[in-house]
Amino acid sequence: MIGKIILSIIFGVSTPLFFSSTADAKVVGGFFGSSEKIHCIEPLKKEIATKSDPRYPNAYTQPKLYKLCYKLSFQYFILGVAMRDDGYVLAEKEGAALYIPLSKGMIAEYQEKGILPKPLPPYEVPLSAYIIGYSLWLLIGVPIALIILLVLITVIFGKLSRLLNRGKICRKCDLFLTENDFSDGKCSDCGEPTPA
Predict the structure, then answer these.
(1) How far apart, in whole angstroms, are the C-alpha atoms of residue 23 and residue 18?
(2) What is the DSSP letter of 80?
(3) Cα–Cα distance between 24 and 30 in angstroms, integer?
(4) Cys-Cys with 90: which of 100, 114, 115, 130 at CB 3.0–4.6 Å?
(5) What is the model's pTM?
(6) Does residue 99 contact residue 71 with C-beta atoms inside 8 Å?
(7) 38: number of Cβ within 10 Å
(8) What's the rounded Cα separation, in Å, for the pair 46 and 96?
(9) 103/192 Cα distance (integer angstroms)
(10) Neighbours of 105 (CB within 10 A)
């Protein structure tokens, strides 16, 4: 009976995690490997011309109006194994494949030029990103934690029952003592003397 309850709890907890995270895993990169996701915070007020190729220091692209974003990186092995917050980036749109990573030096330079706001607007990584990023560990850890919790509850209730029924249970055979056992001075099943 307890085994069926444990299995139903494990299935009930792990199934939504598996199906929600696999759908999101496809969106952000698949079941194996890594992927990145860009989330926009706000558009910039000025256009920026970026270097098109690091080998040519004077070659710049046409100025574009970028958005200030943050980037999250995910690692997958069937489900999410890890999630990393990579900080601020510049991108043209939400979910863009191309972005410009912002180093501390670039942030300071762009803030001096008035391109980036000072201070940078804060952002918060959503809870869903953590659930997706660590879904494999949730799938493994939640059932194990539930089993440990059920074992602890069983042990605690067993000890509590013994404490509450001290003097009413035979020390040798763990059966409840009747009034006849107390009047005879011994357990009728095993012959153990009753507690005084």
Answers:
(1) 9
(2) E
(3) 8
(4) 100
(5) 0.57
(6) yes
(7) 21
(8) 19
(9) 79
(10) 8
